[in-house]
Prior knowledge:
alpha/beta
Amino acid sequence: MRSRAEQVASIIEHRSRYLPNKIATVEKELQARASALYNLETHQQVLLQENANTQASEYLKAINFADIQKRITSELFVLSKLKSRFSRNTLNIGVVGLMGQGKSTLLKSLSGLSDQEIPAYEGAACTAVRSLVCNKEGSVEVRVILHSEKTFLEEVILPYYKSLKLKPEPGTLDEFARASLPAQMPVGATDEAVYKHLRYDYFQNLEYYRHLIVTGAEPAEVAIAPEEVAEYVRQKRNPQGELISYKHLAVREVNIFCPFENPDVGRIALVDIPGLGDSKLGDEKVMLDTLGRAVDVVLFITRPDPQRYQWRKVDTDLYDIAAQELNNLAGRAFMVVNHSQRTQNLNACIALKDTLQMQVVSCEIADCSNPEDANQVFDRILNYLAEHILEIDQEYARQSQERLMKIQQDIDLIIQAAQKVFSATDSDLSTLIDDQYDDLFGTDQDGWWREITIAFQELRFEFAKGCQLPSKSLESSVEKVYKTCKANAGILTANNPEAEIEKQIKASNPMKAYADYRDLLRTLLSDHFSHLDEGLKESTQEVKARVAEILITVGQLGVLGNSLEDWEFIQAFRELLEREHSDLKRLQQGFRIISNFELSYSGLIEPQIYQNLVELSNIQLTDEDSKDVTLKVGQSTTADLILNALQIDYDRTVARIKAALEELLYQPSIAAYALIEKFIDNIIYHKEAQKDWKKFLRRVRAKVWAEEIGKLEQEQQRQQDWLNSVKRLKEVNRVETIQFLT
């Protein structure tokens, strides 16, 4: 026959062999369902806000996500506890009782440890630190788990802030250290006691224990000698109630490994769950978390007063709290009524046992300070564990599995309801949108295509007439430059030109002075007339602006040009075609033509200017041409003669250039007309043009016709998002992925 230790080892091996991994897989699958449901619920809210279809809205409102999500959250918590429980390499007995009921005494009797490792003393509580005493051969080992900054704030400090409604809540230890806690005590005895723990224990003494708190998110494990345990778990106070020991404030858990007194224990651990009742926040949370994850059965301990004994509300409250986290508590709970030889409370113990209403496996009277008594109770619990824990755990897992299957079935009902939302709608949006687009784009007889064709045809006629007229932009530029030539004629418009020329004659000679001033005037005129390039640019921009105006107003394409206008819109539209619509070659060709359209100053105007500027050059002329020389300069030529000659040379050159330019004023208009013809031929009259436009506008129809098509496409996209979300939920809700029991 197997020993009890062998039975315990077999149980641990059996439940840890495959269940933790399977449960972890089911957790992921359940989380995937929660995510898919959340996504579907998000689309539900959008559709309810935007959808005008009454019948669809009624279907949408009928789908309730809150209940199923709440059940999933609850079941994920259960699975997490199951996984933790089944992953342990020990069977754990939780020891629960109010402060001063004999827990520490019982633990020492069962484990053989002394006050050194499990300190306790009359009339005061130790810290809210969970202790685990594990059966292990060899010498006593102690490991202290110290809080990290994250766990200390979340598990210790913030519960006080939330309970007392203090703001702002600290996010770091530094913030807690700098906190301004109220000087006035809160109203009410309970809140006052809670506030005192926060202010006078944790806050006021932070400097004494802060060095033990680990930086970051993860707690740290530290090995200590058995004789040091009291330093880390026992809270000492002076007669005024002030703390005089501080290390325990940074401790999260203490694990003690030692050989138990009972020789046939095996891989068993006793979990000392912190006592309640000292106004110290966090105790109940620690107890609940411990019961859910770290305990297989629970041993309640109570020590009645020999004079005033009865079951109190605080006892039943403790049982009810435990029942919240430990399933089937009646099949997992044991009660020990502590018979104290010192207080002679046997009659009280018998009375409590006889009047017990809480459901437990057994209720025993035992002297917790007597190892023999304590181990008799321990034997009964161990035997029960060995015989029944697998059955109890399997039942717990089975209940969870059944709830998971019900969740899966209810999600299927949600899927069925979700699939009906748009099944009864009156119209097919895809067909409706396509028909609407065909009507809007139109044909040669109506719609967008007819309007844009007419607009460009009218533009073509406009430019055809315009080519018989001079370019207003260039004409204006010529006139402007002509006025500049009059106003700024270099030496000719100087304050005292004769005096300046006289100085130049003295510095060199009359011949060189006359030649130098002619060079200066020629260079000046070249600069003045170079500004005609601006007029040519205006001419090309006017052409592009007229095309852009039609595309933006008649073509309704302004929404595609980033709010740009005129020639900038043309450039942006060309870039859009080349970047996103590389297959529309004919449209690209047309917009490349107009985008690249430029009138060249150097090719059109500059030759005419320099052909006449030669009159002001100092190139040696032949005898035949010398008759046109304004002034033949000699050593005796005076400054006033040179000035008059320069004026004649300048005026004559300006007049000749102006006359030559007037003959060119028609060239920009002719070039613009030729451009418009070529552009319209490519984007309107070419056999591929209409087909390219139809493809292009189909791709951008929601922007161009936002009211007519954009809203329909948004509705279609919302419906498609809904259907995709339903499909995703259906994909993750396969029944085989939610099963962890075979």
